[in-house]
Amino acid sequence: MTEARESAGPRARRAPGTPCWVSLMVHGLAATEEFYGALFGWEFRPGPQQLGPYVRALLDGQDVAGIGRLTPDQRLPVAWTPYFASDDVDRTADQVRLCGGTVAVGPLDAAEAGRMAIASDTSGAVFGIWQGASHLGATLSGVPGTPAWNELLTFETESVAKFYETVFGYEEEPVVSPGFDHVVLDLGGRPVAGLHGVGHALPRDRGSHWLTYFEVADVDETLRLVEELGGRVLGPAHDSEHGRVAAVADPEGAVFSVIEDPH
């Protein structure tokens, strides 16, 4: 689930379909910066303002994520949203529509940074599409404070897996386990995202949604800090085959998971 410490480099172009960025839209930008700055050690600088006030989060001077402020006319969820790389956002957006998805925002230019769209899949989960120009996505991964993995939580995986495979060219790697509906999406033989069918355990107030995992050095210490900073711990930490993990929410309710790399 997590990769070795690496700097992707500012000009490292991702293959189409590669998760390249995560972005959060909130109502209170300053308070959100304060929360994540204290939690992950992020610093912030202004980014493209096409959808309103927006900042990029930096760790050790390298881009790791983005946070924007919702304007009154925007009906986007307060949620972390993964962006998938594309060589042609307009063509990918057309493919999304052809496969039964919806394009909610764009495609539009984000200044000189690139071109983007925000869409939803056939299950209603929101994701982004990014065609990088001067900004190709995150330039640091595999260290605490960086996104480690993205997983779609949905009712069942079969139909939505076909959507992502057709739109982005993924290969499907089923996780064979009785009673466990889980698919790993591979790109060029490398796992890049997961789909998890949870049936009626899917939260009714959220529906299908993407969940971003952030790497941390110590999950239990992170949970203490989340609560101290005004967030919520959604369940006890537990050990998985990928490391110790827990789900939390920030003060505005954006849900994410934190994972401690076992290595």
UniProtKB/TrEMBL annotation:
Ranges where the VOC domain occurs: 18-132, 146-261
Protein name (database record): Hydroxylase
Family annotation (InterPro entries): Anthracycline_SecMetBiosynth (IPR052164), Glyas_Bleomycin-R_OHBP_Dase (IPR029068), Glyoxalase_6 (IPR041581), VOC_core (IPR037523)
Pfam families, sorted: Glyoxalase_6
Higher taxonomy: Bacteria, Bacillati, Actinomycetota, Actinomycetes, Kitasatosporales
Domain of life: Bacteria
SUPFAM superfamilies cross-referenced by the UniProt entry: Glyoxalase/Bleomycin resistance protein/Dihydroxybiphenyl dioxygenase
